[in-house]
Amino acid sequence: MSTILRKYNWVVYGTAFLYLVVAAYIHVATLQNPYTGLLFREDRGAWIVSSVDHAGHAAQWGVRIGDQLVAMDGKAPIDMIELGSQSYLKQSGTLLFVRDGLDTIEMRNSAKSSDVYKGLFTGCAELALLAIGLVAYRKKPESHMVRRFYALNVSMAATLLSVYSTETTLTGWIMPMVASWLPYLLLAFFISFVFRSVPRWIGLVLALYRVMAALFAAYALIIFSLGVIPGWTRSVIHMGLFATFLAIFAIAAAYWKAMDRAEKNSLLTFAAALAFSLLPYLFLCALPDLLWGEFMTPPDTALTGLVILPASVLSLLARQKLVDMRFYLPRLAIHSLYIGLMLILIAALIRSSASKTTLVLCSAFLILVLMHQMSINSIKRQRERREDRLDRQRLEMSIRLAEHRNSRDLLRMPAELVHSVTEIEGLCFVWNRDTEAVIYGTGRFAEITEFADAGKPIPREALSGHGFEQVLDLVVQPGEPIIGYLGLGAKKNRTVFTSEELGLIDKVRRETVRLLTNTALLDELRQARGTLTGDQSEYRLVEAQEAKQVRTSYYLHDHVLQNLIFLSRDLEELHDTQQCSKQHTAIWLKCLYDTQRDIRLLCDDLYPHIVDQAGLGDALRWLMRTIKENGGPTTNLVNGLPETLSPLYKITLFRIVRELANNALKHAKADNLTIRLWETHDAVHCQIKDDGIGIDPVAAGGRGFGLATIGSQVAQFKGDIDIDSATGRGTNVHVWLPKQEGSSNHGAAHQGGTAG
After folding, report:
1. Cα Rg for the chain, rounded, in angstroms?
2. Is residue 1 predicted with pLDDT exceeding 50?
3. Greater model confidence, 647 or 579
4. Could you read off the pLDDT of 391-427 as tens digits, one per residue?
5. How far from each other are the two terminal CA atoms of the chain, in whole angstroms?
6. Which of the listed ranges 108-112, 425-429, 432-436 does the model predict with the highest average pLDDT?
7. Collapsed DSSP state (helix, strand, coil) of residue 49
8. Do residues 497 and 485 make contact, with C-beta atoms less than 8 angstroms apart?
């Protein structure tokens, strides 16, 4: 393999060096012999100007169609190359023209500052293409796709060099080669970049394309060596690029549905970059030349957009990831269409010799359009902000009204219950909720409103003087914060409360406290969720996944890699000294056994092979035994799932049970753990219940990488997870996964077990 790579290195770096040498010579020769823009026709031995390109120097000299070229550097012009029915100068120097047989025009064709700037611009584009190809090759020299990418970049750079150059000796040999092979290289790289496995018929098409490219290149070289270039050669080159462009999009459309997401992203990215690279050339140069025989934009200018394609591909190769291009393509298409039509309009105005006033007015119109668009967008954003602000205010008012009504409804049920059972004159619940108090009274206290306008929590002292026989604190446990009060009036018959009535009142008070505490906790979680944006929620999930990768990396580094380093060092010493003792051998064997164990544990963590080998039931029983051996709680496993369950469901359920069981082992301080799995006609269920200290929902929301990972796995099945837990009364987790077609066969026997 290294010998092959060395051969490729010689080829790649050798071609890069050769290209730089040839390009430097051609650029210098082009500056010494700038582009005149003249084409001639032979008329009875005389050379008559038949075409004057406005981009050449001849247009600035005042040369017109019909002028006769009589001398070049004081000699008769004989150094001509035929291009169809016309000819052009192979080299130029001091040119002498005669107009109407009377007037003479003598001009020296020398480089100007614009020629130097144009040469620098084209040279930078060529260097960029060559550098992009070399960087990609250095990253992956063994990749066949990258080597094609490098060849494509060199071909595009040579195309720019040939189109820009007026040096015809070398470019006459280079141009036919690159013009023949560029479409093939473009199509071949597209196939290798997008498709993981190339369809057979596409391979046959590429082989046929290679033969056609080789034949056309040989033909072009032969006719150039003869000094006669048919006029249709340029049209064939244009149509070849057009055909390649259309073939790429046809193949993409044909295989779109069969591609996975990664292939679709690669395809969309390549198509977008290709469109931006080739559309200026195709629509401003190739298409006008095919239709009208002239360019709207010179080829050397239009082809500089080719840099966009390899730059985009290199970016993808460097980052090794793709954005979802489907979200960006509609916007790119609209903007590209607008900018492309604008450029075509400007080029058409310039080609039609429009006056400076017309160009200025068109530019002013364009500026006004942009200013109008910016103003419309600004007004639209301001209106949307005002509407959003009003919507938020209305929503906040509705939420406050609903919360106040719901809070009173929470207190009404226990208050009415106590009032109806104890024959009391009335009672009053006061709930100090955040920064306000919620009050509900019955009987003689039904109209109490003194506290309602306070807008702040009510202290116990404020309840005195309102006729309450006694005031009870609303508190979860002694020593914890008081969340409110229960004021009791006298009984209607003026008797004291019986022990049964006091017991009922105390039970209602405790249940009311629990209900209010859960409501307050739910409000806190909603507020915390409201402060966590969607991007942050996604970030938390990515962070959880990244944390698992980091743990795996450190595990490999601190265990497996260190053992291998230790072994390699001792084996090198053994090789040098050729001495070995039993003590060393025992140490090496222990190191190998530890490495085997670590790799096995890591493999089980990444993918539980035991599920495939022994089945879900045996794998869960093995997991329960392992937890018990590590000092965990007594476990009870009830597995009602069939062994014919889909492997994907088995793996997912095992991972969920393992994560929750490990949480019970490490954090819950539970004595008993019950795991139950069963199926219904449309879903698979899993319940994990322990009698530990429970989960604090607020704390779990802050730290829960394990819960975030479980939630992600359940969400992929479009299932649901329900967690019922409170501090001090254990945790009950119920996971529900909907069945997919073929996920399970019904009627399997119940499987259960207990691990003590």
Report:
1. 41
2. no
3. 647
4. 777 777 666 667 767 777 888 888 888 888 888 889 9
5. 58
6. 425-429
7. strand
8. no
Q: Are 90 and 73 in contact (CB under 8 A)?
A: no
What token pair was written down for 706?
């394990």
Residue position matching structure tokens 């965990």: 632
Residues 624 and 672: their CA atoms lie apart, in Å, by 12
| SS3 sequence of 498-534 | CHHHHHHHHHHHHHHHHHHHHHHHHHHHHHHHHHCCH
In sequence order, the β-bridge partners of residue 108 are 94
Which residues does 608 contact at the CB level (< 8 Å), separation at least 6?
A: 619, 651, 654, 655, 658
| Residue 134 to residue 245: CA distance in whole angstroms | 25
DSSP, res 98: E
Determine how many CB atoms are found less than 10 A away from the CB of residue 604: 14
In this structure, are residues 469 and 488 in contact, taking their beta carbons and an 8 Å threshold? yes
d(CA 69, CA 59): 15
pLDDT tens digits along 308-357 = 777 777 776 655 444 445 555 566 566 666 666 666 666 666 656 666 77
Contact 323, 301 (CB under 8 A): no
Compute φ and ψ for 432, nearest 5 degrees.
-85, 95
Query: What residue type is 399 in one-letter code?
Result: I
In order of 119, 547, 554, the CA distances from 550 in angstroms are: 51, 5, 6
What's CA 507's distance to the chain center, in Å? 56
Taking the C-alpha atoms of residue 534 and residue 537, their distance in angstroms, rounded to an integer, is 5
Dihedral sign of CA atoms 665, 667, 668, 674 in order: negative
Q: How far is CA 245 from CA 189, 263, 282, 619, 714, in A?
A: 13, 19, 9, 55, 44
> pLDDT band for position 17 (50/70/90)?
very high
d(CA 515, CA 507): 12
What's the pLDDT at 590?
Answer: 74
Instruction: List Cβ neighbours of 338 (8 Å cut-off, separation of 6 or more).
Output: none
Evaluate whether 220 touches 179 at the Cβ level (below 8 Å).
yes
Query: Rounded to an integer, what distance in angstroms lies between the CA atom of residue 209 and that of residue 207?
Result: 5
Which token pair is 487?
Answer: 């004021």
Which residues is 107 bridged to in the sheet? Answer: 95
Q: Is residue 175 pLDDT above 60, yes or no?
A: yes
pLDDT band at 609 (very low <50, low <70, confident <90, very high): low
Distance CA 672, CA 664 (A): 9
Residues in the chain: 756
Q: What is the DSSP string of 275-329?
A: HHHHHHHIIIIIHHHHHHSS-SS-HHHHGGGGGHHHHHHHHHHHH-----GGGTH
Give the tokens for residue 658.
Answer: 């393992």
Q: Which of 203, 217, 35 is nearest to 112 (CA)?
A: 35
Pairing of strands 683-690, 672-679: antiparallel
In the chain, the amino acid numbered 367 is I
CB 448 within 8 A of CB 428: yes
Nearest by Cα to 304 from 571, 120, 122: 122
Amino acid 558: pLDDT:
53
Task: Report d(CA 325, CA 54) in Å as an integer.
Answer: 41
**Residue 179 CB contacts under 8 Å (≥ 6 apart), including other chains:** 159, 162, 220, 237, 240
Of 27, 303, 15, nearest to 170 by C-alpha is 27
Reported as type and span, the H/E element at residue 421 is: helix 356-422
d(CA 413, CA 419): 10
| Integer Cα distance of 261 and 323 in angstroms | 11
In order, the DSSP letters of 576-591 are HH----HHHHHHHHHH
Residue 20: its pLDDT value, please? 93
Annotate 560-595 with b (16+ C-beta within 10 A) or e (fewer).
beebeeeeeeeeeeeeeeeeeeeeeeeebeebeeeb
Q: In what order do the strands lie in the sheet with 86-89?
A: 103-108, 94-99, 68-72, 46-52, 38-43, 86-89, 80-83, 228-229
